[in-house]
Design a protein that fits this description.
The complex is a heterotrimer of chains A (95), B (480) and C (484). Chain A is α+β, with helices and mostly antiparallel strands. Helix content of chain A is 32%, strand content 9%. With 480 residues, chain B is an alpha+beta fold. Chain B has 16 helices and 17 strands. In chain B, α13 (421-434) crosses α16 (467-478). Chain B starts with a strand and ends with a helix. Classes of the chains: A alpha+beta (95), B alpha+beta (480), C alpha/beta (484). At the A-C interface, α1, α2 and β3 of A face α9, α10, α11, α12 and α13 of C.
Chain lengths: 95, 480, 484
């Protein structure tokens, strides 16, 4: 499957990845190569085969409903880029 | 009413489950904490953290499933819903997609006194709530509080079975009552623990296909749901009749202008790229678990309503009103007990005087100044003849205003009913003597004047005469 | 001291031949002197290490020491370490001081091990050569013009160069085993779910496993014993007691049936590697094992399957790196979109971006069935190949990597060529099985590895099999020149 640059731009946007316009063509080429490579899978007959999401096929354990975390906000916000009054700040979001 | 068009409505309700801790972490869920003091590493989506599922959330979802005649899936899977937004720390929401925990149920709503309608519940699934964005006060920036991130939600999706705003509100109220009956959600719409999105479309009557629908988000009161739907229906009809096409979009309701408008964010079809969350394993629910859940279910609204009809001889309509909320049903039954078993009387008073007074004062039944025991006590005094029904209403108003118990007020204001026959007879005779003209008219055939005489006796006794006795004595004397 | 194994070190500490502080200082000195050539470390935690060493010495004095108490190790920079930079080899986390410890970090702390520093790695564990790191490539101590393998390149090189006696790594498609092979050391990837993933920054959640890199199977057994264990914080962690991996190390291999998949010995395998592996298999026959030809028919699909599943999972796992709560934030973002796209565009390297985009594409509307769903189906077929094989044989062996260490830059322009370096290791992650690599020879003076793959939770058996080989051969004792 060959991807053109506009498709690469779409994917990059979905993933919120800034790509230098100068690099888009190379990304398109590399991604197309990878997709061509993985397309081998199409030839495999997988009729009736259940997808394997977890290698061990176990089931989910349940946790008792108890408060076990006391949050020291400062510990977590030390590594934050921008905070004020305990809130994380981002450019304004318009709804 | 526009009979050319049919309205089609589906509701998506997000009910916050009232667990103590979050759905995937051990942080607290209590409302109103200082920003980001209830967001632990897992809730913040720090690198390396992992989710672990809260057993109570599963239990609550199962309860809901059983209470709505749904299938509780023996195997359900959590899926990631991927999108970018600052209140979504991981860049994906853990939700459920192809295999939800509950599906294919229904609820019956009362359209009027004799008709019910079945509204299908397509599915109810578990997911985590996002944080909150605060747009004011940050010099052009938005502040993000992640306390709410990770609170468990049950997303309840209805079939597009509703055909009017009224039906939608009836359904929403029923779900609201049910989740509170089940004690899985506090239903507090102001605090955001019960949120509703409405999917609205119109189509010509008798059309088979659905029209294009719009989604109206975050309606947080019954009134708003009604207004928003009505506005949207009119808007869509006007648009189509004017030659336009309804655009599939998300809209917000403006409660001041009573209109819906499109959300200002760039409209793009969201590709959520759902896939099973590899950090979580499939949830398996066996029959033994479901049997345990079933055993913990309270008497559900429908069953309670039927019981009220049977035990107290109430109509379906009245029973329906009384069981609309668990608090009201509890209050009613406590009143019946305190009143010496008077079902119908209690029903009338709860639905009538009490309801009226509460509405006027803007107070919920939980905060009623007159308790069920006190109201029952009042009704007991009607039953045992101490006061008449009419006087009781006065007494009730005084009780509501905090003047004390029924007995205390009756005593203080000397409101005891006069039931002494000879005393009443005396007053009856006096009234007849003082109204010779009317007496003559009565004897000449104007038998309706009986009411006049009754009124006069009641006035003379300041309303305290036993009306039944007054009636009997008057007839006896007049017809003699 | 730097040539002693873990058992000797523990004994030396216990018998007060030297203290943990002394040994730690010696490691730090060696790192200071030699790491410039190799670039194994992103962060050296000298002060913390000495504090830990002091505490360990006290424990040893009071007779409360365990097998790892006072022993220095290097920790892959993918494991969160509280108060210490945890970069994952990326600019995106260059400023990230983790506020919490990974469970594995906690377990090693409790064991009294001494963390010398955080090792260099391919960015977010995506790579097979340690060339994608923001902090520059790691050099193979056997030949600094060559790669050490990846993504746990720093950890492997540090052990090979005898800078530390043991290190931790993670393996998603071969990232412990392949660098172990290329650096001439022992590396073990446990069964999926054996080692907790909490605090181990996720690449591909259903494939990642943490494990030890050491100079011998015996040492790996000691490390694994400390790292493994059920963790309630990790839903994919398996609730199964941790065995004593030392107990069966010397068990006889008489009657052991070794399966040799024909697909592991086909085209693409370098002659020198094939010869050494064959010779190693000969040693196993001498130890009493039987060699059985088997087939894992879907082997050729493993790499393409992996390159759908892993990118899909990582594309989602890395969405949390958005410049909002931690990590790199672009300067002066104009609006929210700009904040996201520039922070992520500038913070991630090209290989990471490629994989995020492949993953995003594979999950996107219209493509999910064709790519992701399909790949997960093929994944089951691959696992079934193994399970079927284990019905008639006990373990599977073959080369760990198709060639010895390649030159820096040799494969970095052609992603797919790089991906094929993991051709023998990847299927093991897809199936969730345990696998290890042990040194089995030299080809043109460069080490190569023999891979041993077992059934679920057979780590003890794998270590026994490796240990017996190491008792009759000395490939694992060879040190690269200049680092003896």
């Amino acid at each position: 499957m060959a991807l053109d640059t506009s498709e690469v731009e779409n994917i990059a946007h979905l993933a919120r990845l800034g790509i230098d316009p100068a690099d888009i063509v190379e990304y398109a080429r590399n991604l197309s190569d990878i997709l061509a490579f993985v397309e081998q899978l199409n030839a495999v007959d997988t009729t009736g085969v259940e997808p394997l999401a977890h290698p061990l096929e176990a089931t989910q354990r349940l946790r008792a409903d108890e408060v076990t975390e006391t949050v020291e906000r400062e510990d977590f916000q030390q590594c934050a880029p921008q905070t004020e009054a305990g809130l994380y700040l981002v450019p304004k979001v318009i709804e | 009413m526009n009979t050319k068009w049919e309205t089609v409505i589906g509701l998506e309700i997000h009910a916050q489950l009232r667990t103590r801790s979050k759905i995937f972490s051990g942080a607290a869920t209590r409302y109103g904490a200082q920003p980001n003091t209830q967001a632990c590493a897992v809730d913040l989506g720090l690198p390396g953290v992992l989710p672990v599922l809260n057993a109570e959330a599963v239990l609550m979802a199962a309860k809901f499933g059983l209470a709505t005649h749904s299938t509780v899936a023996p195997r359900s899977v959590f899926a990631r819903k991927n999108y970018f937004y600052p209140d979504l720390p991981k860049g994906y929401q853990i939700s459920q997609y192809e295999l939800p925990i509950v599906h294919d149920g229904y609820l019956d709503i009362e359209l009027d006194e004799s008709t019910t309608k079945r509204i299908g519940i397509t599915r109810a699934h578990l997911e985590e709530d996002a944080g909150k964005s605060l747009h004011e006060d940050f010099h052009g920036l938005t502040g993000i509080d992640l306390n709410r991130a990770g609170t468990p939600l049950l997303e309840i999706v209805s079939e597009p079975d509703m055909r009017s705003a009224r039906e939608a509100v009836a359904y929403m109220k029923k779900i609201h009552a049910l989740v509170r009956y089940l004690d899985i959600c506090d239903g507090n719409m102001q605090e955001g623990s019960f949120r509703c999105d409405a999917n609205v479309s119109v189509r010509p009557q008798d059309a088979e296909e659905f029209g294009t629908r719009t989604e109206i988000k975050n309606l947080n009161s019954f009134r708003f749901v009604e207004q928003a739907i009505n506005y949207e229906v009119e808007r869509q009809i006007a648009l189509i009749e004017g030659g336009g096409k309804v655009v599939q979009e998300t809209r917000l309701f403006d409660p001041d202008r009573h209109e819906t408008r499109p959300m200002r964010t760039k409209e793009e079809a969201n590709d959520y790229r759902y896939f099973p969350d590899p950090d979580l394993l499939p949830v398996e629910i066996g029959q033994a678990f479901l049997d345990d859940v079933a055993a913990t279910l309270p008497e559900l609204p429908e069953a309670r309503k039927q019981r009220f009809m049977g035990d107290y001889g109430l109509s379906a309509y009245d029973a329906g009103i009384l069981t609309a909320s668990r608090e009201q049903a509890d209050y009613f039954e406590a009143t019946v007990d305190a009143s010496g078993g008077q079902g119908k009387l209690s029903a009338n008073w709860v639905m009538g005087e009490l309801s009226g007074a509460l509405n006027k004062a803007g107070v919920d039944i939980i905060d009623s100044p007159v308790s069920a025991a006190e109201l029952g006590g009042l009704l007991l005094r009607i039953e045992d003849g101490t006061i008449s029904g009419k006087i009781a209403k006065q007494v009730f108003q005084d009780m509501f205003n905090g003047e004390g118990s029924a007995d205390a007020i009756i005593e203080k204001k000397g409101l005891k009913q006069i039931s002494d026959s000879s005393a009443i007879e005396g007053i009856v005779k006096e009234v007849l003597e003082n109204n010779p003209k009317q007496l003559e008219q009565y004897r000449n055939g104007q038998t309706k004047l009986l009411g006049y005489f009754v009124g006069q006796v009641m006035q003379a006794t300041q309303g305290k005469a036993n009306p039944k006795q007054v009636n009997e004595l008057l007839r006896k004397i007049l017809d003699a | 001291m730097h040539t002693k194994n873990l058992t000797e070190l523990a004994k030396g500490l216990r018998e007060r031949e030297f203290s943990s502080v002394e040994f730690t200082q010696a490691c730090l000195e060696r790192v200071g002197r030699l790491d410039e050539q190799l670039n194994c470390f992103i962060t050296v935690t000298a002060e913390q290490a000495l504090r830990q060493a002091h505490a360990a010495d006290a424990r040893i004095q009071s007779g409360e020491a365990g097998p790892l108490t006072g022993i220095p190790f290097a920790h892959k920079d993918i494991f969160c370490t509280q108060g210490v930079k945890t970069s994952c080899g990326s600019k995106m986390l260059d400023n990230f001081i983790s506020p919490y410890d990974a469970t594995v970090t906690q377990y090693l702390n409790e064991a009294g091990a001494v963390m010398i520093g955080k090792t260099n790695m391919d960015e977010f564990a995506m790579g097979s050569s340690n060339e994608t790191s923001f902090y520059g490539p790691v050099k193979n101590p056997w030949d600094p013009q060559r790669v050490p393998g990846g993504s746990s390149g720093g950890s492997a090189a540090a052990v090979a160069a005898r800078l530390v006696p043991a290190s931790t790594g993670t393996d998603t498609g071969g990232s412990i085993r392949q660098p172990a092979a290329l650096c001439g050391i022992t590396g073990l990837k446990p069964t999926y779910g054996r080692v907790s993933r909490y605090g181990m920054i996720a690449f591909a959640s259903s494939l990642d496993q943490g494990g030890p890199l050491t100079r011998s199977a015996e040492d790996a057994a000691i490390m694994l014993g400390a790292m493994a264990g059920f963790d309630a914080r990790d839903s994919t962690s398996v609730d199964r007691p941790v065995e004593d991996y030392m107990v069966g190390l010397n068990d006889s291999l008489e009657g052991l049936k070794i399966g040799l998949p024909k697909e592991f010995f086909g085209a693409g395998l370098a002659g020198g590697v094939a010869d050494a592996v064959t010779a190693a298999l000969g040693e196993y026959e001498k130890l009493g094992a039987t060699l059985v030809d088997i087939s894992l028919p879907n082997t050729s699909l493993a790499v393409p399957t992996y390159y759908v599943v892993a990118p899909a999972e990582c594309s989602s796992n890395l969405s949390r790196m958005d410049g909002v709560r931690f990590g790199y934030r672009a300067s002066d973002p104009q609006d929210l979109e700009d904040l996201y796209t520039r922070s992520r565009g500038e913070g991630f390297g090209p290989e990471v971006k490629r994989r995020i985009m492949i993953g995003t594409y594979a999950l996107s509307a219209g493509y999910y069935d064709a790519y992701y769903h399909k790949a997960q189906q093929v994944r089951r077929l691959i696992r079934e190949d193994f399970l079927k094989a284990f019905e008639t044989i006990d373990v599977i062996m073959g080369p760990t990597a198709p060639t010895a260490a390649f030159r820096l830059g040799e494969k970095s322009d052609a992603p797919i060529t790089m991906y094929l370096s993991d051709i023998y290791t990847i299927a093991v992650n897809l199936a969730g099985l345990p696998g290890l690599s042990i040194p089995a020879g030299l080809t043109d003076g460069l080490p190569l590895g023999l891979q041993v793959i077992g059934n679920y939770f057979e780590e003890a058996r794998l270590l026994n099999i490796a240990h017996r080989f190491q008792q009759v051969t000395d490939w694992h004792e060879l040190a690269p020149q200049g680092f003896e």
